Hints:
Elements: E1 12-15, E2 17-20, E3 23-30, H1 47-70, H2 76-86, H3 89-102, H4 106-122, H5 127-148, E4 162-166, H6 171-175, E5 182-187, H7 195-203, E6 207-209, H8 214-217, E7 223-227, E8 232-235, H9 239-262, E9 276-282, H10 287-290, E10 298-302, H11 304-310, H12 316-329, E11 336-339, H13 369-374, H14 376-389, E12 395-399, H15 405-424, E13 435-439, H16 442-446, H17 448-452, E14 457-460, H18 462-470, H19 488-504, E15 508-510, H20 518-526, E16 531-534, H21 539-547, H22 551-564, H23 570-578
Parallel strand pairs: 3-4, 4-5, 5-6, 9-10, 9-16, 10-11, 11-12, 12-13, 13-14, 14-15, 15-16
Antiparallel strand pairs: 1-8, 2-6, 3-7, 7-8
Amino acid sequence: MESSADCPPVMCELCGLPVSRGCVSGRAVVLAPPTEINVPEFTIDDCQAEIDRLDEAISKSRSQLLNLSAELNAGREIFDGMLMMLDDPLVLQSCRDEITQYRVNAELAVKRMTEKFSNLFAEMDDPYLRERARDVRDISDRIIRNLLGRFESRSRTLSEPSILVSDSISPAELLSFSRPNILGIITVSGSVTSHVALLARAFGIPSVTSIAGLLARVSDGDFLLLDGTSGRVVVNPSAAEQAAFALLQERARLDAAELAAECGRPAATADGRQLKVLANTDANTPHGAVAATGADGIGLYRSEYLWLSLNRTPTEEEQTAAYSAMLREVPAGQPVVIRMLDIGGDKVMRDGRRMQDPETNPFLGNRSIRFLLDNPDEFRRQIRAVLRASSGGNLRLMYPMVSTLEELRAANLLVEDCKSELQSMNVPFNPDILRGSMVEVPSAALIADDLAKECDFISIGTNDLIQYTLAADRQNDRVARLYQPTHPAVLRLIKRTIDAGNAAGIPVSVCGECAADPVVASLLIGMGATSLSVSPSLIPLVKRTLRSFTWSGLQALACDTLDMMSGKTGSEVYQFCKERVKP
């Protein structure tokens, strides 16, 4: 009888969510599940000595994270957020209270803190804060291991370029490997907005996630084909599969070279209609390099990252300096849209100031524009800073998460008050600065015609609009596939918003992640969006796709899609569009 060792490996195909574009092939390195920490539980006599032991472990954890952060250019904000959490008074006090009130050991105190805060963050709607649930678990794991003196790592020496396969992987674990030898990443759980996904895209590592049963189908040393663009993984491919994939890789290589050479070409249709593709950025973005991608400006500057990178509330002077410095890096005349502070009520600054009292679900509560209007001093500081910086370029301001006309009117009144204040002080600013409203919730889309009459432009934030419309959190692995940008309900809300802006004669931009998908981007422009704003690295691909259409071709794509989507699923609508779009 032929032994199992003599049997050729069985080929199989797996499909998941594409996270980071690119096609690679190589041997699998399967990471063993992390060793579960056996947290001891015992009563202590000297509370202060136990707190000192906790503080020492936290200090050691901080040094470890600082060393990891120092290795990075892009993605450093991930570790900045973790470091901020280590200094969060609420987190630290929670651990200390457990020790002093219940006289428990530090390891158990950290475990209880983890359960409390990770559950709180995991229930939130905001992607940034849901990701913090993973951060809490990663940080507490690090602190407990340092307390126990058993810091273990799943990292292995990669003697040759390999594809990492794991249930999940943390940013710190990813950085523990030699990056030149990481060909790709495949995980069971994860999302397109996880921290590892952000690092994979920053490093240019193809990645696929959300593959159920992955670890039962892939073994150490298996040969894999990984397509981070489509989400397809082939295990132990046949010779024919490998040959076809090699052609795909060569096309991808040539495609990347062509895109790099085309960065300077405008986003115009084949028949010459000019379009705009701008960049989404934040305080950690090297804005001087954004222009090289062919960006037509900054369509979304996430100002909250200035708060997060400083670990405190920035002063008006600091904000003015940051916005002015960014303007100097952007080509003269290009628009720069500052999204006003978009942050939730659970935020705790390093200085210990809590932005507001805790809420059961802060992201269906006092967030974004609601928080700003409820904290007018904070709002005024930022408005004045944006106005002061506006004297140096084409700066615009945008209100986040508007859901009612009252909110838009109240924000506009504050801007006018700040203008009068600066004018009385003879401080220069652009008196005609443009003010925009984001449409991120269904209520805003349904009253877009009213909003359009009282602002200068509209920007559709599809990330939130999709998940609020479909009640499907893209961070939740179990419902991630329900997060569909081409769901008919979502497209109808987008079309209603675009039509309202066009009727009012104001620009309508789309700044959510789906605008970076060439298929959806083509549909959005065909529907009447005047510009798109996407991650800088994806601008060349979106621009090239739009150049492949005539203006009438884009309009026909949108018209045909809107006509066919009644009674169709989001996936069916996407497939219909995909067959007509050639990225």
